Amino acid sequence: MNDSMLAPPSTMKAWVLKDPTELELVDKPVPQPGRAEVLVRIDAVAVCATDLEVIQDGPPALIQGGAPFNKNFTPGHEYMGVVAALGEGVDDWAIGDRVTVEIHAGCGRCRRCREGMYTSCLNYGANYEGNDKGHRANGFTTDGGFAQYAVNHVNTLVRVPDTMSDEEAALVVTAGTSMYGFTELGGLLAGDSVAILGPGPIGLLAAAVAKSLGAGTVILTGTRPDRLAIGAKLGADVTINAREEDAVAAVRRLFPGGVDFVLDCAGTEASINEAIGMVNRGGKICLAAFPHVPVTVDLPHAVRNNVYVYGIRGEGKSAVRRAMAFMAQRRFDATLIHTHTFGLSALPEALRYARERVDNAIKVVVRPQD
After folding, report:
1. pLDDT digit string (tens) for 244-288?
2. In which element (H, E) is residue 57 found?
3. What is the per-residue pLDDT across 175-214, written as a single tens digit (0 to 9) for each?
4. Ordered domains of the chain (ranges, CATH)
5. Do 197 and 348 form a contact (C-beta atoms < 8 A)?
6. Closest Cα to residue 35, out of 97, 87, 111, 74?
7. CA of 47: how far to CAs of 78, 258, 278, 280, 362, in Å?
8. What are the contacts of 108-114 at 24+ separation with CB within 8 A?
9. How far is CA 111 from CA 36, 118, 137, 175, 317, in A?
10. Which of 13, 39, 42, 114 has the least CB density, counted as fewest CB within 10 Å?
11. CA-CA distance, 164 to 323, in Å (whole number)?
12. How many other CB atoms sit within 10 Å of the CB of residue 7?
């Protein structure tokens, strides 16, 4: 593909968020990359549950210091594509390179970014006139992927091998979130026992990532048999249907003292307490999902048993790059969670499929160039 074939137009189609739950397909100017940035022609973007939350409620999106509604903001963050233009100083990427992207670029100047915790940037959302500290989180604080083009900082780019389809490359961010969770738990899972709660996209790929990292036994709990079956194909050694048996008791039958690690991908009061109940003394829990209201949890048990609890947002510490390494090596088949594909004009229907799990939808992908 030569450079002239990728020359971007002056305008593009993009969805913008109006009132809560209301999206409008409009023509927007194609953004121009600045220093250390590239323009990405978006070829595939996956729908994430957080996109649904942003469109309905606003948070965690923060635009111009406030809610994202009626600000010409384009959501969507799990995308891949082709480099279509280079900003000043970019010599490590070329027009035509296939890339997938991390969400967060951070500001690069705060203490958290300097520590490598750019998903916890202390200047989150500070990127507008009068308060511009350089923070970027596409689809949250800057325009995202429900469009035909987007600008990305070079530190968010991950190379896509020619052997990988566009749709699979759009799933790398999901695997990266699972990878980040295990990174925060210490990253050394070889021979250890891991329980994963919730067979959503992150939970399913967490089973694959945990097994790829060498976990001895991977347990996946959930309530949907079809998803548990996919989890088994991706690497779960044991699946537990929480509708048919008590998940904590089932885990304790296998590991009377409890498992070494728990990754909660359900984000409910019940799942957090299940995680506390099934981890062993001195074990570690990572909350990869979160409740939307305050909850009551058994902290006395956690403290008495020296249980460590971590929370993560996004896919920090270069987890997307490491997840891509596993996927490029075919350690697991992430396409097992890709169930539906739509064109850009059908985004509202794609969101409905994801939200209502129409036709057993798991991961829905949109192709903006179609």
Report:
1. 999 999 999 999 999 999 999 999 999 999 999 999 999 999 999
2. helix 49-57
3. 999 999 999 999 889 999 999 999 999 999 999 999 999 9
4. 3-103+138-170+333-367 (3.90.180.10), 177-311 (3.40.50.720)
5. no
6. 87
7. 7, 34, 31, 35, 10
8. 108/134, 109/133, 109/134
9. 21, 9, 17, 26, 14
10. 114
11. 13
12. 10
- Fill in the amino acid letter for 3: D
Helix axes 172-184, 201-212, angle to 10 degrees: 60
Amino acid (one-letter) located at 163: T
- Can you tell me the distance from the alpha carbon of 274 to that of 264, in angstroms, rounded to the nearest whole number? 9
Segment 228-241, tens digit of pLDDT: 999 999 999 999 99
**Rounded distance between C-alpha atoms, residue 361 and residue 112, angstroms:** 36
Rounded-to-integer distance, Cα 360 and Cα 80, Å:
24
Tokens (6 digits) for 299: 């902290």
Identity at 83, one-letter amino acid code: V
Q: Is 359 left (phi over 0), alpha (psi -120 to 50) or beta?
A: left
- Structure-token pair, residue 1: 């593909």
